[in-house]
């Protein structure tokens, strides 16, 4: 009898302990829930609205540019947190879009990807060259060939040369391209049906077109359009969205993985059950990491690696705290090893619908924490900031 009493007391204590554990877990969950915007319907609708609005704007601009020798504007691609579905709670999200540029007729873009073999590519440039279109243009509408016809004939063609307007030397200039596009938007906004509901202001930027659309109620919508030149037929672009540092050369474009990233998250959304909370984890950590030395690009790399290894069915409410711990554990392991592999280089587990240049697929994995190996002080600081997390 004594043994039975002792046994039942122990079980009772264990039950209480387990109950306390789940009470603590539920309490933590409620705390985290307050920091997360659980409904994504509003974000999804506004993302769709922005894509529609910018698509209408580009239709107006394309009509204006139809007979010019300026870049040909392609359909926009929504990129970044708002279009991936995890925009941080708090301040109004900035809806970021990429406007792909194709060369006008009689011109070609040659992408110069910096030092040969260097990956990720740095110091990238877009060289603009003329090409002969004599046969092609005569077959179409007898338009003079830019390459061969004398300049006095070309003067009859409006805006005869992209080289003389948007380039420095033979290279596409980021600030000149941004200014050109901003001026186009200002002049075309009045033709938009949305102009009756929104007042539009172009905000200062030397590498993109930032718009603030305001309703009479005072509610504002922030849109940023960067410009991109596609690498072949891949999801990798050279983007104008570089840092707006004073010493950045005006002809330098940055290699961007934003389109590949948004395709990855959309691929996961198609595979995931409706209740999957992987985007909520991203949203929560976006707020937690604000003000620390850990960038959102680092967090997204960690998340993409984890989503490729942890089944999507495990990103649920019941295992939410475990997944948050997985994110911290993965980041901690990377910091200790001073190694975080870039997701898009040398990754054999890439979803098939993401198109990468052949060199990306055969490359050795690239370490984004290489600088921590070379700088002990930076590594010590990163470990200290992780402890604060």
TrEMBL record:
UniProt region (Disordered), positions on chain: 1-20
Localization terms from the record: Membrane
The Mab-21-like HhH/H2TH-like domain, residue ranges: 295-350
Gene3D superfamilies on file: 1.10.1410.40
GO CC aspect terms: membrane
Top-rank lineage group of the source organism: Eukaryota
Keywords: Membrane, Signal, Transmembrane, Transmembrane helix
PANTHER family xrefs: CELL FATE DETERMINING PROTEIN MAB21-RELATED, INOSITOL 1,4,5-TRISPHOSPHATE RECEPTOR-INTERACTING PROTEIN-LIKE 1
Family of this protein: Belongs to the ITPRIP family.
Protein name (database record): IPIL1 protein
Organism: Ibidorhyncha struthersii
Source lineage: Eukaryota, Metazoa, Chordata, Craniata, Vertebrata
Gene that this sequence comes from: Itpripl1_1
């Amino acid at each position: 009898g004594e043994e039975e009493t002792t046994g039942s007391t122990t079980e009772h204590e264990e039950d209480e302990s387990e109950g306390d554990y789940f009470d603590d877990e539920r309490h933590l969950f409620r705390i985290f829930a307050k920091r997360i915007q659980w409904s994504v319907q509003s974000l999804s609708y506004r993302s769709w609205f922005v894509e529609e609005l910018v698509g209408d704007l580009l239709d107006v601009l394309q009509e204006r540019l139809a007979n010019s020798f300026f870049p040909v504007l392609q359909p926009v691609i929504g990129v970044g947190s708002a279009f991936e579905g995890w925009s941080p709670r708090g301040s109004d999200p900035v809806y970021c879009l990429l406007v792909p540029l194709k060369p006008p007729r009689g011109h070609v873009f040659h992408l110069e990807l910096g030092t040969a073999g260097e990956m990720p590519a740095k110091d990238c440039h877009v060289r603009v060259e003329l090409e002969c279109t004599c046969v092609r243009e005569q077959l179409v509408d007898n338009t003079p060939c830019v390459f061969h016809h004398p300049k006095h004939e070309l003067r009859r063609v409006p805006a005869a040369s992209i080289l003389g307007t948007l380039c420095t030397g033979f290279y596409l200039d980021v600030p000149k391209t941004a200014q050109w596009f901003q001026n186009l938007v200002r002049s075309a906004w009045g033709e938009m049906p949305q102009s009756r509901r929104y007042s539009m202001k172009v905000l200062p930027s030397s590498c993109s077109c930032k718009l603030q659309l305001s309703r009479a109620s005072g509610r504002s919508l922030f849109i940023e359009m960067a410009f991109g030149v596609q690498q072949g037929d891949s999801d990798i672009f050279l983007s104008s969205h570089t840092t707006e540092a004073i010493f950045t050369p005006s002809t330098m474009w940055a290699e961007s993985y934003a389109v590949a990233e948004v395709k990855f998250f959309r691929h996961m959304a198609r595979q995931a059950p409706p209740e999957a909370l992987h985007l909520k984890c991203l949203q929560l950590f976006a707020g937690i990491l604000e003000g620390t030395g850990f960038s959102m690009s680092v967090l997204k790399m960690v998340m993409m690696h984890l989503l490729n290894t942890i089944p999507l069915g495990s990103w649920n409410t019941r295992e939410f705290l475990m997944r948050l711990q997985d994110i911290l554990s993965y980041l901690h392991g990377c910091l200790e090893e001073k190694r975080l592999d870039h997701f898009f280089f040398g990754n054999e587990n890439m979803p098939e619908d993401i198109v990468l240049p052949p060199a990306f697929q055969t490359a050795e994995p690239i370490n984004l924490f290489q600088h921590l190996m070379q700088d002990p002080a930076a590594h010590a600081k990163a470990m200290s900031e992780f402890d604060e997390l």
